[in-house]
Amino acid sequence: MKKVVVCGQSVATAEIASRLIQSRLPLAVMISAAQPEALDLAALSALSAVCDNPFSKATPKQFATTDVLVLTDYAEAGDLTANLAGMRKVINEAMAAGFAGKVIVAMQASELGTYFAQRFSGLPKTAVLGLGTMALTQCFERQIASAFDVPADAVTAYAVGTQQDFALLWSRAFIGATAVMSLLQGEDGAALMTQCTEACTTFAANVDATVAGRLVERLLAALFGRALIAPVASLYDNEAKPTAYARPVQIDARGVTPAFEVKGSEAENTQLEACLTRLAAQIAAVEAGEKA
């Protein structure tokens, strides 16, 4: 049975723990929170009493034998300063106890969280990953499937960048072996692209903790044996400095492996570069604040 500690102080903290308690994956689920009474641990304990997976409050010593830390938000309003402070504290406790497992960042700003979780912990870059644009990609694929009246699993498409600031790779979208762009003709095709983009934008603004729980469960399954290729947030070395953004990678027992590189059209790559420029500015602002 794998040991998973869910860390945070938000609705997502309790929601993810609840999902994992009910999971078919054999997990020992724990919560690490500054104010555990606010998360209704009694209800989670009651849930575990009727499920196969045990639940308990985490203690610092348990970090040494923990397989995966799941980092969630510490502030409901998405306060980045509070979230990073909470993350740093729990990571310091875990590393001091001898933690050497994997980290899943399930914060709202998962790309920023992934970057700083790796920096704070010093863990290998392959061991830290965030939810990235997994949910957004699934929304994109289902929009295409609905438009062409085909099963969702017949569609392969990717959203890259961040959950809040992304590029849809229409040029690399396929239904089976057929490029979606070859099926988009004239004004109808342009209207469909606009409709899908608007639906994805609305979805990205309304993703909640329930969705996060589902994604975390699937990533845990990948880390524990059911390999997956998905656009998660992971560290990426560019010529200037490391950053973290969502792009398709392989997730398995090794952690994150860049299996292949998916490049969009010139316009899509320009859009992605603009996303990454804004992300780099956010990282630089946080780092400047730390040095001040």
UniProtKB/TrEMBL annotation:
Source species, domain of life: Bacteria
Sequence intervals crossing the membrane: none
InterPro entries in UniProt: Lactate_DH/Glyco_Ohase_4_C (IPR015955), NAD(P)-bd_dom_sf (IPR036291)
PANTHER family, sorted: L-2-HYDROXYCARBOXYLATE DEHYDROGENASE (NAD(P)(+)), L-LACTATE DEHYDROGENASE
Protein's name according to its UniProt entry: Lactate dehydrogenase
